[in-house]
Design goal:
The complex is a heterodimer of chains A (about 180) and B (about 550). Chain A has about 180 residues and is mostly helical. Chain A contains nine helices and no strands. With about 550 residues, chain B is α+β, with helices and mostly antiparallel strands. Chain B has seven helices and 44 strands.
């Protein structure tokens, strides 16, 4: 049994000390994901708390199949989806007129020179719906059909949202770099 | 998945950041509690051990109660007192408050014990009395800094100083200084013939400056946030920054956003209840570089585009394109058409990024205008006015120009001159060539009246020596020639078969011809046997 597995076993036995250790090990990972799905640090911290409280109550269900990190990622992403849903975001009716659409393709070099933190800052500025579709598709690697099912929207809407999200993101990156 | 998405995924997948400590505190409150049965189950070994210990202790106490010993009580007291004295030299922050509370009780005990143990027995002479007097104005004081000033009700030379404490000044104003923070016991012993006067006090010196504060950088790039790290401090700083947005990002770190370009002064103070610490630091935020990009498009997908980046303020240390070409001049030549990412480096590691499109142009529009020479009417000069994308072409676009007259190449020059030899319509073409797949033609038809004759159209036979004769010139050789001049009525005024012969304005050599308009017809053959015929009018004027 690895140290990590031992730690999780102890968490399942509700040891406070083990919880502290677990938090220390995984807080940055979970918070990093939360930041991507929310508009600012305050929301991210809110979501982060919900995720960890959920983790504390669900850790007993972890069966040591597959990596714990993967399991925790999924738990966090699912919580993020619920969190955004609870904010009653209407994914279809986002107004995007304020984002000037750019027709030219963004050079990937610009992206490659930005730090992850800088990119997350830009992602924060996207409307909630765009942000979620973008995260789920590009970062989490969900297929459009899967996202459509998760969010209760049509496959086509999902694709459109993704396309628009991407354009808005590029426009924002360009604007931020000016 | 596009490159753009791939890079994003790669970067963000493992993005990590720590939330503020509040999150942890909130989460900790929600730790699930074990039920009692779970608690017993998970800690059964501890329970057994605890019960055993309790039982054993009970047995030991039962035995020891039988023979209570007063000495043990005294020994215990001494231990406590000694500890206090040892600690008093250098106390850490956390222990201090507790000590302060019970200081007065401890103080008397300590002072007494110390004196009794170390000096009383040996030094108190017969008849000498020991007296306690308030020499110091305070029994316990706290100094934020390194200097304690007091008015002594005694003589300063009688003060017994611990290590690290120095004394200066007179009795009226005695100054005790320490450069090492800590709690010190200062004793006063004044010996006279029949009396020993004693007093003592505690001085706690605390640092009044924060040594453990650091900033992420004192020169920031535009838009960069400042992180201030305040270590080892449990008290919250009070920020003197009305214009800035300060947030706590972790236990020791504070993030300051929206610093303005130019000089910013970051100020805060921290109070720990006793001392106030001030901190002030100037942070410079560099100005955003202003720049202008001037590009010449590439033509026909050739590596012939140029880009010049000119910066308006500051001196960038490096310009780089696509992370592959870099220089410090900002001039890039022989570029392929396409999208470029430009980065300009300036200051201490600041960069600004831009994305540029260098266009590829196939839009060459050759055009020329033709000017007829004023003297030699067969000669034309051509001016090349070719445009590339509606702008004048640049020589470095390496466009090759070919001029053709009636399908035959004449010259490769930008602005040629040409003398036509064919009478009538001539086709002039200007071909702008980059390569075989990229060329463009402009053509114009020029009607040229070829003539080797030079024939005046006015003459004045008035004997003034100027233009008195009408004479025809021919450039070149002529085989046969005939000239007939007729009046408007069709009467022949002059005839000749010799080109060298001129008309003097007299009809048949006698009568002066009337003023007015006359017609001429020249017929002949040039040296190649080609028939020449030229008709025209001439004006006869006598004044």
């Amino acid at each position: 049994m690895t140290d990590n597995e031992k730690l999780i076993k102890q968490c399942q036995k509700k040891s406070s000390k083990a919880f502290n250790e677990l938090y220390k090990n995984y807080a940055s990972l979970v918070y990093g994901i939360c930041l991507r799905y929310t508009k600012d640090k305050a929301e991210a911290e809110d979501l982060m708390q919900e995720c960890f409280i959920k983790l504390l109550s669900k850790i007993g269900e972890y069966e040591f199949k597959g990596s714990f990190e993967g399991w925790l990622r999924r738990l966090t992403v699912n919580n993020a989806i619920n969190y955004i849903r609870s904010k009653k975001v209407n994914i279809l009716s986002e107004d995007v007129s304020e984002y000037e659409m750019s027709n030219h393709e963004m050079d990937s070099n610009v992206i490659s020179k930005m730090s992850a933190g800088e990119i997350v800052n830009v992602i924060n500025q996207l409307p909630d719906g765009y942000r979620m579709v973008f995260n789920l598709h590009v970062i989490e690697g969900y297929k459009h059909t899967e996202i459509a099912e998760l969010l209760g929207i049509s496959d086509i809407t999902c694709r459109t949202q993704y396309k628009k999200a991407r354009e808005a993101l590029m426009a924002l990156i360009k604007k931020n770099n000016e | 998945m596009s490159d753009f998405d791939k890079i994003l995924k790669n970067k963000l997948e493992n993005f990590r950041e720590f939330p503020s400590s509040e999150v942890f505190n909130n989460i900790r409150k929600n730790y699930p509690k074990r039920s009692f049965s779970e608690f017993v189950r998970y800690n059964k070994y501890y329970f057994i051990a605890a019960i055993t210990t309790v039982l054993l202790t009970a047995v030991i106490i039962a035995i020891s109660v039988k023979a209570p010993d007063k000495n043990s009580q005294i020994v215990l007291d001494n231990t406590i007192n000694n500890t206090e004295i040892v600690n008093s030299d250098n106390l850490n922050n956390s222990g201090e408050n507790n000590l302060n509370k019970k200081n007065n009780d401890v103080y008397n005990l300590n002072a007494d014990n110390e004196i009794l143990v170390s000096e009383n027995n040996s030094n108190l002479k017969d008849g000498q009395k020991e007296q306690f007097k308030n020499v110091f104005t305070s029994k316990d004081t706290l100094i934020c800094g390194t200097r304690y000033e007091t008015k002594l009700k005694g003589k300063s030379e009688n003060i017994i100083l611990p290590d690290d404490i120095t004394i200066s000044g007179l009795n009226d104003l005695t100054i005790l200084s320490s450069h090492k923070p800590g709690k010190y016991l200062i004793r006063y012993v004044e010996k006279s013939q029949n009396c020993i006067v004693r007093d003592s006090m505690y001085i706690t010196f605390k640092n009044s400056s924060l040594s453990d504060v650091s900033v992420s950088n004192s020169v920031l790039c535009p838009g960069e946030d400042l992180i201030i790290t305040i270590r080892n401090n449990e008290f919250a700083p009070k920020w003197n920054l009305s214009d800035y947005n300060v947030s706590k990002i972790s236990v020791n770190n504070y993030l300051i956003k929206d610093l303005k370009q130019g000089r910013n002064t970051v100020k805060f103070d921290i109070s720990d209840g006793d001392c106030l610490y001030n901190y002030e630091k100037d942070i410079e935020v560099l100005n955003t570089i202003r720049y202008k990009c001037i590009s010449t498009p590439s033509v026909c997908s050739k590596s012939n585009a140029t880009l010049t980046v000119v910066s308006g303020n500051g001196t960038p240390s490096e310009y780089s394109l696509n992370n592959s070409y870099s220089n410090n001049t900002g001039i890039f030549t022989n570029l392929d058409p396409g999208i470029y990412s430009l980065s300009i480096k300036y200051g201490d590691g600041c960069r600004i990024y831009d994305t540029l499109l260098i266009r590829d142009s196939f839009n060459i529009s050759p055009y020329f205008i033709a000017d007829r020479d004023l003297v030699n009417k067969n000669k034309y000069s051509f001016q090349n006015l070719t445009k590339v994308d509606d702008k004048g072409y640049e020589r470095n676009n390496s466009i090759k120009f070919i001029w053709k007259v009636n399908g035959e190449e004449i010259i490769e020059a930008d602005n040629p001159e040409y003398e036509f030899t064919k009478n009538g319509n001539n086709t002039v073409e200007l071909i702008a060539i980059l390569d075989e797949s990229c060329q463009s033609i402009y053509s114009e038809t020029i009607n040229v009246a070829i003539s080797n004759f030079r024939i005046p159209n006015i003459f004045t036979p008035n004997g003034d020596g100027i233009g008195d004769e009408f004479r025809v010139f021919y450039d070149g050789k002529i085989k046969s020639y005939s000239l007939t001049i007729m009046s408007r009525m069709g009467e022949i005024a002059f005839e000749s078969n010799n080109i060298a012969e001129s008309w003097d304005g007299k009809i048949n050599g006698n009568d002066e011809a009337a003023e007015g308009l006359y017609y001429y017809i020249i017929r002949g053959e040039d040296e190649f046997g080609k028939v020449i015929e030229q008709k025209g009018a001439l004006q006869l004027v006598r004044h």
